[in-house]
Design goal:
Layout: H1 3-19, E1 27-30, E2 33-36, E3 39-40, E4 43-47, H2 64-74, E5 78-81, H3 88-96, E6 100-105, H4 120-127, E7 133-140, H5 153-170, E8 176-181, H6 186-191, E9 197-201, H7 210-218, E10 223-227, E11 233-234, E12 244-245, H8 247-262, E13 268-273, H9 323-333
Parallel strand pairs: 4-5, 4-13, 5-6, 6-7, 7-8, 8-9, 9-10, 10-13
Antiparallel strand pairs: 1-2, 2-3, 11-12
Helix pairs in contact: 1-2, 8-9
Length: 337
């Protein structure tokens, strides 16, 4: 990182530290809102899984200082991670930057703070007083994978509900969420009453707005979009966007998507846009950026109906800003908390 940026980061951390207090951060829900210390909290977030070139999906936080500077510039106040961050130094840096974290627990992660082993509750106990924590999240789009639960999603929803209950018993100060693939059905809602906030991964072209009216009908709980957005690669030429890498297609899609989301703040509590950086580990050679990849129920990805998994960042893997970065910056900075 250049000296100028390092100096800005140090200055920023010192200011944040001097302004911090020892008050406890309590997160709770009230009607359709998430409250932090009794103030409504709007998630202006990003999904964050920093994997360097050549790595087979192993996170690396060595670029965290640079990433925090970019996040603060973009107005990001929340990150969503797909596995726990078991490094207090990382959480401390995020807390000093006033960036909160939605901590994700997988079902079976070979005993690494996962739901199947029950070890997730050890992580909750360890970090439940940390100021960076916003929500505990259980699972990600598991409703698309009944094969993981003996072909019966009731097994997942029962495990989800029981895990949420256990968290409530150990930590009354942070709500529990799950990242559900699109709108949950009646079975999911019926079997998971202990979920406080529903995260919904929504890919409905560039118009996720219809999800809010649908949610309003089926639940009075808070919700947010745990994933949404578009990628920067067109597999075909369509709607005026040329085939190949196409940052304008991503920027245009995200502009419309974010406009839709923030028009519905009376129902939704924001979004963690997918995602912060391109992920070269998802398709093909891990040392090159390749089109392709696959995700369930992803035909709604604008503007080609194809999720090119390595092209989803608002910055590229070298942290160069893509066109959509300024779209996110404009949307997040123009919205009040």
């Amino acid at each position: 990182m250049k000296f100028k940026n390092s100096f800005i980061y140090i200055l920023f951390v010192l200011i944040a530290y001097s302004c911090s207090t020892k008050e406890e951060h309590i997160v709770k829900v009230f009607k359709r809102q998430i409250l932090v210390n009794d103030a409504p909290y709007l998630i202006k977030g990003i999904c964050y899984h920093p994997v360097p070139k050549g790595s087979p999906n192993k996170r690396d936080f060595s670029s965290l200082k640079e990433d925090i500077l970019l996040m603060k510039e973009a107005g990001i106040n929340t990150i969503r991670v797909y596995a726990p961050i078991d490094d207090i130094a990382v959480l401390d840096q995020l807390a000093l930057a006033d960036i909160k974290v939605i901590i994700g627990f997988g079902y079976d992660q070979k005993g690494f703070y996962d739901i199947a082993s029950g070890s997730f509750i050890e992580y909750v106990e360890k970090y439940k007083t940390h100021k960076a924590i916003l929500l505990w999240e259980l699972g990600n789009e598991y409703n698309y994978h009944p094969e993981w639960f003996d072909g019966d999603l009731k097994n997942w929803y029962n495990a989800l509900n029981n895990a949420a209950k256990l968290i409530h018993q150990r930590d009354p100060n942070h709500p529990v969420t799950t990242a559900h693939g699109d709108l949950p059905d009646s079975l999911a809602l019926q079997l998971s009453p202990n979920i406080d906030v529903w995260g919904l991964n929504v890919y409905r072209w560039d118009n996720p707005g219809s999800i809010y009216k649908e949610w309003e009908v089926i639940s009075d709980k808070p919700m947010y979009l745990s994933e949404a957005g578009g990628d920067s690669y067109m597999t075909i030429t369509k709607d005026g966007y040329e085939k190949g890498e196409n940052q304008k297609a991503q920027a245009d899609a995200n502009a419309t998507i974010l406009k839709n989301i923030f028009k519905n703040n009376h129902i939704g509590s924001g979004v963690t846009l997918f995602s912060f950086t391109d992920g070269w580990w998802k398709a093909g050679d891990k040392y090159t950026q390749d089109p392709g990849g696959w995700a369930p129920n992803s035909s709604g990805v604008p503007y080609d109906g194809s999720p090119n998994e390595e092209y989803w960042g608002i910055v590229d893997i070298d942290r160069n800003k893509k066109q959509t970065f300024n779209v996110v910056k404009k949307a997040y900075r123009n919205i009040k908390k």
